[in-house]
Amino acid sequence: MGYPEYSVDIDTGFIVFNQKTYPGFCKLLEELNVTARPTAMSFSVQCQKSGLEYSGHSLSTFFAQKKRFFDPAHYRFLSDILRFNKKAKVINSSLSPRITVGEFFEQHRFSRRFYEKYFLPMAAAIWSSPAEKIVDFPFRSMIEFYENHGMLQIKDRPIWYVISGGSKTYVDRIVETSNARFLTNTPVQQV
Fold it and tell me: Is residue 191 one of the residues assigned to a domain?
């Protein structure tokens, strides 16, 4: 589609999906006969300022730096992550949709390390936003996203997939199998 002689393959359609959260998309891929493959998805931090490094993939990667086995603050950090995951699920539905991330953390006691080295970097990575702007995001919407994507649980996390051949594969199949006429480089008139 478009001008192949001027094209460069870039796969920015989306990054990952799972069957629980994206059932309609999975059905579309099945109808188009487009294959997907499981992929690894985890979150890790390397802070040059504090020297902290960890990954959320497993307990062993959380303690990737062996010195953290003897660091009480690292255990408090882990405790805060577990407490947050449990608490966020329970209280989220009772919160005002207008409460911001910053307001939530002013009202609830979590360690500074949890807030600055876990919550803010993960949210900033997910929403491609500077950490200092995350404080103004609506907390409830953010936690609903986390819960829908299995991010508030340690066990039974969803299996994440990517499309074999990239997003272009399913776009090409839609174009091939559709009776629609596709116009490129054309302003949108109506949706």
Answer: no
